[in-house]
Amino acid sequence: MNKFTFQNSTKIIFGEGQIAEISSNIPKDARILVTYGGGSIKSNGVYDQVCEALSDHTWDEFGGIEPNPQFATLMEAVKLVQTEGFDYLLAVGGGSVVDGTKFIAAAAEYKGSDPWDILAADAKVESAVPMGCVLTLPATGSESNMGAVVSKGSEKLSFGSPLVRPQFAVLDPAVTLTLPARQVANGVVDAFVHTMEQYLTYPVNAKVQDRFSEGLLQTLIEEGPKAMIEPEDLEVRANIMWAATMALNGLIGAGVPQDWTTHMIGHELTALHKIDHARTLSIVLPAVMRHQREAKKDKLLQYGVRVFGVECGTEEECLDIIIGRTVAFFRAMGVPTSLSEAGLSRDDIEPIVEQLRTHGMLKLGEHGAIGPDEAREILELAL
Ligand code: NZQ
Ligand code: ZN
């Protein structure tokens, strides 16, 4: 196992009816800006629960944060925070609202000339407005991690800082019952791929991390399809919600090599072609598995035996079956597993490789061995 420091300070407040608890988790004298997305919270009762919980607080609201939150929209909120003096942010929504609010928190206190620079590779956040969140879509893990992804035109970039980690996250699985099936599927697939990108590298004898990861993968494989078939089952939703948080809260990634190739290529697919985040991942991951079949062989076989119970003849036969089972899981979730299913062709590959180059994504993978040529080969395997 590699050396690591692990600290996750987000207080998790889990279960039905827990939105009421935000009242005791935000200082009474705070001036709160509640941020949200396109309005789902106003039609599903979440907004009313937040209003009730904040009845003794001073607060205002900022809505309209879009999926793949846009820099220009977020900057409107930054101005509001600065001019009105809000000193606490409460994000109510999915990963986009939580990520967008993390950016608002950092940009409102940014001393440089252009807040877009917060997303530069070498940027460091020096201070941020404190924030909490009420999560309505289990997927990204943003509710208890320190990362955020922000878009501007065809740029989709990320930043991370412990200063934007939410102080608390309310996870009420009941609020996920109003999610459209597409978003339920996206969430399960995103959490699955987060787990894979911290697991599917090479063995470092990290038994706890491996077995936690395998437990999360099994949970998502078991419960994901159930959520599609029995959308009213609250226990299924609860298990998915907790799995998605655990998949990217730092725990399973501590002390192990990681490979975020699928996400980095996926972000370019979203930026250029507006494909939902999770759907880019279900397209790219199987191709990464095929391309890295030899380099990742030990972990692929471990995954096959422990997660799917695959038993077969030769290693090569096993690997085919294991990659096939992964694709079958994505298909069961109704997400695409090839570029062509998303309407893309060979002609679309080079611009994606160019974007990776522009963004300095020249040494992806656990060994830094995936450069532009390998990314092109992966995209060709994804056709
Ligand atoms: O905007 P509203 O009206 O709220 O509707 C949203 C949105 O249209 C809707 N929704 C959310 N909760 C709902 C609901 N509809 C009905 N009932 C509910 N309870 O769902 C739609 C999608 O929401 P969004 O927040 O965009 O989805 P998700 O949570 O998948 O977030 C995706 C974003 O997170 C980033 C992605 O790149 C993408 O920008 N990621 C953030 C990460 C992180 N911070 O660690 C890691 C991830 O890998 C990912 O990159
Ligand atoms: Zn993701």
From TrEMBL:
Keywords: Oxidoreductase. One of its GO terms (molecular function) is metal ion binding. InterPro entries: ADH_Fe/GldA (IPR001670), ADH_Fe_C (IPR056798), ADH_Fe_CS (IPR018211), BDH-like (IPR044731). One of its GO terms (cellular component) is cytosol. It comes from Reinekea marinisedimentorum. This is NADP-dependent alcohol dehydrogenase. The keyword Membrane does not apply. Belongs to the iron-containing alcohol dehydrogenase family. The keyword Kinase does not apply.
